[in-house]
Backbone:
């Protein structure tokens, strides 16, 4: 075959194949174009979901908008855009898009829920309530929708509709307690007392053996100034349920509000000693009563008597013994309080506050050894507790082992957080006391000054610093300033008056000194201590009134027989300084 013939045959074949391909493309083109377009836009939606999941919100939003342009009939797109706008706090665009979604898909409840929540977040409570009420009409179960619409109607101030929604729920679920009590809250906002009472009576009818609903009914009447009606309900309930704790608590509450202390305590006692409750509930009720009793001495005595009875029955309850110790301390029975705290920590040593109460009870000088021993025991359990080191230091100072006291208080300061300036100032003040007693006067002054920088209005620290300076006859002008300030803060304080008077004594202003120290003695009466009378005796000696000086030195000697200097003053009728 010639070359020319071969070329002609190839051309004819190519022409035939092209024509056949064109015919095939003409047949399938419309179908493939639609499929390709759908596949491409589906990929856009998938990519948008992916970017949104990864947190790339801007990219996701752009992709969803591209998809919406290509496929405006897909409701889900606008839902996703609404969610993005809501997260960006753009409520207007979120609302615009979710409304488009709801228009395209009228059956999707999730779109309506989103819209309702969007309205609620924008404080459009009435509109939001209507949305959830409509959802309750359309979908079952609808409990959550009814509850939400009721709450939103309340927030919108439409209490009648709020009640209506709860009534619909009551018709479905029956007169449940939680539901009826929610209705009562709305009735009370409307001042519909009898409607609320009717609900409580429904609960009483459905629960004839439950005394607490009587108590709730009585409280309802009492809180709404229907006192006689409240008492009538409680009396009726007490006949039926004499040992019911809810009724006893209701009676206690009634008598407390009536300020009938005796009857209140009677019913409090019944509740706390009620055999149907456990120990923890007993303690909770007891603590609640203690918080209510105030500073009335009769109430404190009643509480102590009640707690003593409980301790006799439950002698191994550490928490009860701790409360017992507190009550004993309140009633000035310190030694017994200390024993109660010791019993408590023997049973349960894990309560730091009980250790602290015990140690505070041992801060008198006569208990120095016990304070040291028990604080060391506590530090084995709480080796980083600043307050325990501090109290341990006080024990050593009280025992006149000043070096050990200084070391312990210094450690306390190291552990004490700086945010509690008041306690830190007390520690620096005590360290100043210890250094002064150890005759390290420069360090004493440094610590007092540090204390006053933290708490410039701490009257006790001001007074102590002033007194030590006066005794040492140093910086008397500063001492006078500190002492005067302490009396401005706590006018008439006997100890402070003595300090102020002694500063004037050291300055040679004896008439002023006599006036102030005499005031301090009069403030204390028979409890005025030996130091006050000795000071006044010294002042009288400087004023050349030897008889008066001897009179007060002798009184001081009776109060402090172990003071040898007083013996010399009295014997020789002479001042020794």
Residues:
């Amino acid at each position: 075959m010639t070359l020319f013939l071969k070329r002609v045959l190839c051309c004819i074949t190519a022409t035939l194949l092209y024509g056949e391909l064109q015919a095939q493309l003409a047949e399938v083109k419309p179908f493939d174009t639609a499929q390709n377009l759908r596949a491409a836009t589906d990929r856009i939606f998938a990519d948008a979901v992916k970017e949104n999941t990864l947190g790339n919100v801007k990219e996701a939003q752009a992709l969803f908008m591209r998809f919406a342009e290509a496929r405006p009939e897909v409701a889900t797109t606008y839902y996703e855009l609404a969610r993005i706008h809501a997260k960006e706090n753009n409520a207007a665009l979120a609302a615009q898009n979710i409304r488009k979604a709801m228009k395209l898909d009228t059956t999707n409840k999730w779109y309506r829920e989103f819209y309702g929540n969007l309205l609620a977040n924008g404080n459009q409570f009435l509109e939001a309530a209507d949305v959830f009420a409509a959802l309750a009409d359309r979908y079952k179960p609808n409990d959550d929708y009814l509850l939400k619409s009721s709450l939103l109607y309340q927030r919108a101030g439409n209490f009648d509709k709020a009640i209506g929604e709860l009534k619909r729920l009551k018709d479905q679920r029956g007169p449940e307690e939680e539901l009826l009590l929610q209705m009562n809250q709305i009735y009370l906002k409307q001042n519909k007392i009898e409607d609320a009472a009717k609900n409580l009576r429904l609960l009483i009818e459905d629960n004839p053996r439950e005394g607490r609903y009587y108590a709730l009914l009585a409280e309802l009447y009492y809180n709404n100034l229907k006192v006689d009606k409240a008492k009538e309900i409680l009396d009726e309930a007490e006949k039926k349920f004499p040992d019911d704790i809810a009724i006893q608590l209701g009676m206690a509450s009634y008598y407390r509000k009536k300020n009938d202390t005796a009857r209140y305590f009677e019913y409090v006692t019944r509740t706390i000693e009620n055999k149907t409750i456990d120990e923890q509930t007993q303690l909770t009720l007891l603590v609640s009563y203690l918080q209510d009793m105030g500073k009335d001495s009769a109430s404190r005595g009643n509480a102590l008597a009640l707690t003593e009875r409980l301790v006799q029955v439950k002698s191994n309850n550490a928490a009860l013994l701790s409360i017992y110790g507190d009550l004993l301390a309140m009633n000035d029975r310190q030694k017994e309080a200390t024993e109660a705290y010791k019993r408590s920590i023997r049973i349960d040593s894990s309560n730091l506050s009980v250790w602290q109460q015990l140690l505070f009870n041992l801060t008198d000088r006569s208990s120095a050894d016990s304070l040291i021993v028990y604080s060391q025991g506590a530090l084995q359990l709480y080796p980083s507790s600043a307050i325990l080191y501090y109290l341990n230091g006080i024990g050593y100072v009280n025992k006149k082992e000043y070096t050990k006291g200084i070391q312990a208080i210094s450690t306390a300061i190291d552990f004490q957080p700086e945010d509690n300036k008041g306690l830190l100032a007390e520690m620096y003040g005590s360290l100043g006391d210890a250094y002064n007693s150890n005759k390290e006067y420069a360090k004493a002054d440094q610590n007092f000054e540090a204390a006053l920088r933290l708490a410039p209005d701490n009257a006790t620290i001001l007074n102590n610093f002033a007194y030590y300076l006066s005794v040492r006859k140093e910086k008397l002008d500063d001492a006078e300033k500190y002492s005067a300030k302490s009396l401005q803060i706590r006018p008439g304080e006997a100890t402070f008056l003595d300090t102020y008077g002694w500063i004037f004594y050291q300055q040679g202003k004896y008439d002023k000194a006599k006036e102030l120290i005499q005031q301090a003695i009069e403030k204390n009466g028979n409890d005025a201590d030996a130091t006050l009378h000795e000071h006044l005796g010294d002042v009288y000696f400087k004023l050349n009134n030897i008889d008066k000086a001897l009179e007060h030195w002798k009184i001081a000697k009776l109060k402090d027989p172990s003071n040898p200097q007083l013996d010399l003053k009295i014997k020789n009728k002479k001042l020794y300084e």
Notes: The chain has 31 helices and no strands. The radius of gyration is 43 Å. The first helix runs from residue 3 to 53.
